[in-house]
Structures are given as structure tokens and as C-alpha cells.
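Please supply some protein, with C-alpha cells.
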Amino acid sequence: MNDNAGVVDPNTPSIARVYDYLLGGKDNYPVDQKIGDHFKVDLPGSVAIAFGNRQALVRGVRDIARSGVKQFIDLGSGLPTADNVHQVAARYIDGAKVVYIDNDPIVLAHGRSLLATDDSTTVVQADVREPEQIRNSDEVRRLIDFDQPVAMVFSAILHHLNDDEDPRGVVSYWCDQIPSGSQVFISHFRSGGNAETEAAEQKLQSTFGRGRWRTDDEIRELFGDLEILAPGIVPAVLWRPDTADESDTPMSSIGTADRELTVWDQLISAGLARKP
């Protein structure tokens, strides 16, 4: 998130660009790299959080598409990287439509360049905290039919909303908009009650002035009355992990089911739910 939406400021770190840097991307500035290097050097192992989350997102989109859902709204999508939502969905279902939402202007610029010739995918510059504005945008109205199932993707975005910004209310708004058979994917930083959690959360808050790690129960509450699908809300690397034989995407996690979890693996959880 960026509270100065509409202005690209190379001297102020951006959550989307820091995340891009941690994933090995090139759409970032020295100020973003400085923050990313803090995690790489001072909190060794924390970069695994970014990769574990991205891999879980790929598997989530894959399984949603396999279930027959063709429409996706990716809130707080960040900068384009390997295996974007529209690319993964297209591998598993014909006619997929994807709307990316982010309020970082550099995300908008790069996204529109990437998708210039793709009429079934678009990028909308908007704030996740203003869901009604997103719902009523021309591009969302053009691509998304709310009479048919929709997948709502909240990948590593709700932990950037403070409690007084009502993340539960944001999810609830969209749950009211989507019909039966729709699905909601959430990944979220998880309170671990340890020094690593406290250090990472403090860095996020001191850099961006926001951010809230949440407990397992608090993450579960974000789903409201939705039916949480197997395996429930678990560390992202354990959310429907692939074996080497099953993996067919560059960003899939391989062999995570059999390895011992690190403390960093446990600091981001993922879950998928269905609207009855």
C-alpha cells in the first residue's frame, strides 16, 4: 500500500517495490533495496516469507481455476512477477478474467504495459480500503460478472491494514458482493510470539507507518462465515504443497511437505474459503 497514490516517489520506500526486490525483480529503487537488504542481512531467512507466500498464491489460483471459477479480483496485487494470477489461471481454465488492484502508480504503469494487448485482464489504481470505489469502477464492471462466481485474492495485503481500517469489513464487503460458489484466498503475516516476529513487525511499522501481525484466530475471523476449505489456515509453505512430480509452474514450492519448517516459514499463513 502507498498512501501517496498517484505519485512515484523514488525517495520513499514502497511495499510493492520492496516485495519485488525480495523476489528478485528489477522494478525498485535504492530506497527499496535498503529496506529489502535489512531483511536479507539482519533477519536472515526472512526472504523465505516472500517466496513462500508467492508460491502459495500460485497454488491457490491453480486450484480455484481447476474448480471452475473464471473471474479473479487480486487486491493489492503488487508489481508483475513470474506466474501472475492471469498467467496461472489461463493454464487451467479457458476464458479467465482478472482485475488487478493496487494504489501504487508504478504498479499501474508496469501492469498496463504488460497487459496492453490483453482484453481479459486489467489493472485498476485504487485503494483496498475503498472497496465500493473498486466495485463501481468501469474496468471492474467491464470484466467481472457478479452473478457468476468470483475469486477474491487477498495475498499478503490485509496485514498492511491496521485494526482501525477494518480489514474484516473489507473482506465482508466483497463477500456480500460475490455469489454462492465464489472463493476467497487470504495470506497474512502470523504472530509467532518470538523475536523474529517482533523484529519483522517493528521494521514494517517503522518503515511504512502501518502493519499488524495477527494471530491464527484473528486470521480465521477475517473469513467470517465462509466455509474454509482443506487444509484450513496453515503456514503458506504447507498450504497444498506440491511434490516434484506435481509441480508444473516456475514458482511452485517443491518438497515443502517433507521438510522441517523454519521459524520464518511459520510467519505467514494462507487459507482458501468458499461462499456457500
